Amino acid sequence: MNRKYFGTDGVRGPYGGPLINEAFAARLGCAAARSVGRGGRVLIGRDTRGSGAALEAAVARGLRAGGLDPVSLGIVPTPAVALAVRAHQDPLGVVITASHNPAEDNGIKFFGPGGLKLTDEQEARIETLLPERVDDQARPLDAIDARGSYLAAAQRLLPAEALRGWRIVLDTANGATATTSPDVLRALGAEVIGIGDRPDGRNINDGVGSEHPARLAAETKARGARLGVAHDGDGDRCVVCDELGQVLDGDEILTILATHALERGALANRILVTTVQSNLGVDAAIRAAGGRVVRTAVGDRYVIEGMLKEQANLGGESSGHIICSEISPTGDGLAAALKVIEVMLASGQPLSQLRSRLRKFPQLTAALKVAEKKPLESLPGLGAAIRALEAELGERGRVLVRYSGTEAKLRLLVEGPSDDVVRDGLNRLDAAVRAELRVL
C-alpha cells in the first residue's frame, strides 16, 4: 500500500524541513489519535536530539486534539516505549527519534496495542486522517517512569552477578541508552568502559554507535574486554565485537542465538526470520543446525510481522535489529547483547569462537545517493543488468537492488562464490545505475 509520508520506520527527515516540524508533528499526532477511534492514554518517548522536546510537545498537542491523553516517558530507548505500551495495555505509543541518522534529523514512529509497530495499512490510514491544522494549545505533560521497569526487565535476563569479573566496552551512540545499558550491565557485575555516553543534543551518532564501530573494536581489544557492544541512537539495534576486536553484525548475532536455541529446542517452530538483506550463509548455518530461515522485506516491522505469521520467537536484520519476542515486541539492542552473553556463559566459549558458526558468502554492498527515486521498473538498463547477473550467479549467489525507506539512496547488494565475481557484479550494477539516474 502506497504511503506518502511514512517510510520503513515511521516518518523521518531533517528537523525544520517539510515533514519534521512542529506543525506537521501536531497534524500527525492528531491523525494517529483519530485512527485509534477511542479514548485512552498514549505514551511518548524520545531520544537525545535537541529537537526532541519541541517535537514531543507538538505531537502531544495533536494527540490531545484527536481525543487521546498524552503522557511523557522522557528520554528512553525505543524498546522501553514498546514494553510500556504492552505492560499498560495502552492503545498507542510514540517515539520521537531518527534512530541511526545524524542529529539534524528527527522522526516520529508509532506502536499500536501490544507494543507492535503499525502495519503499512495502519500507517496509510493515518495519512488519510491528517487534518489541515491543529489549533489545540500546548499544555504541560504528565509523566510516568518507564525507565525503571525497563531496567528491571533487562536485568532479569541474566542471573544476579552473572557478569562479575567481566570487562565490557559499551558504545551508546550519545543516544537514548547512555544511562540504561550501562546501568544494567553494572548491576549484573560488569566493569563497563563507556564510549558515546555524553549526549549533548547535537552529538548523537556522531562517529559513534552501531554505524561507526571502529572505535569500539579498537577499545575492546586494547582494554582486554570480553566483548564490545554498540547501540544506535534510539537503542533498538545491537552490534558487538569479540575480544580480538572483530566486529559482528546482525547476521552473526542471529546465527549465534538461533543455533544455540536449536541446540536447546528453544527456537519456536525451528524458524529464524530474517530479511532479504541477510547473507546466504545464515540459511546454510541454520539449515545445518536443523532449522530453516524465512525471509521478509527489509525493515524490522516486516520481520515482526513474519515472526507473528510463522509463530517464531527470533528474528532480525543484518543491521542489528534483533527481536526476541519472548522478551520484547520490538528490536532491543540491550536484550540482544544480553542474549549473546547468555550464549557465551552457557557455552564457555569466547565470542571469537562463537562467530565461526556463520560462514558468510562473499558480499559487497553500495548505497548511492540519488537525486530522484525513479521507479526501478522504469530503468530498463538497470533491469537488464540485474537479470544478466542473476542468470550468471544462479544458485551460487544473489542480487538485491532497492531504495532506502528512510533516505534518498539506492542500495545495491551482490553475493556470490568469490570476491572477484562479487566485485565485478557490483561494478556492473553501479555503472547501470549511473547511466539512468543522477547519482549525487
> What fold name goes in the CATH topology slot of the largest domain?
Alpha-D-Glucose-1,6-Bisphosphate, Chain A, domain 3
Overall spatial form: globular
Class from helix and strand fractions? alpha/beta
State the assembly state of the protein chains.
single chain
Using DSSP, what is the number of strands?
18
Cα(first) to Cα(last) distance is 29 Å
Describe the protein in words:
With 440 residues, the chain is an alpha/beta fold. It folds into four domains: 11-145, Alpha-D-Glucose-1,6-Bisphosphate, subunit A, domain 3 (Alpha-D-Glucose-1,6-Bisphosphate, Chain A, domain 3), CATH 3.40.120.10; 149-246, Alpha-D-Glucose-1,6-Bisphosphate, Chain A, domain 3 (3-Layer(aba) Sandwich); 250-357, Alpha-D-Glucose-1,6-Bisphosphate, subunit A, domain 3 (Alpha-D-Glucose-1,6-Bisphosphate, Chain A, domain 3); 363-436, TATA-Binding Protein (2-Layer Sandwich). Helices cover 37% and strands 20% of the residues. The protein is built from 14 helices and 18 strands. The chain has helices at residues 22-36, 52-65, 78-88, 120-128, 147-155, 180-187, 214-222, 250-264, 280-288, 300-310, 333-347, 351-354, 380-393, 419-436, and strands at 11-14, 41-46, 69-75, 92-96, 105-111, 142-143, 167-171, 191-195, 227-230, 239-241, 247-248, 271-275, 292-296, 314-316, 322-324, 363-369, 398-403, 409-415. The strands form five sheets. A six-stranded mixed beta sheet has the order 1-5-4-2-3-6, with helices on both faces. Strands 8-7-9-10-11 form a five-stranded mixed beta sheet, sandwiched between helices. Strand 10 and strand 11 form a beta hairpin. Helix 1 (22-36) packs across helix 2 (52-65). It is globular. The two termini are 29 Å apart.
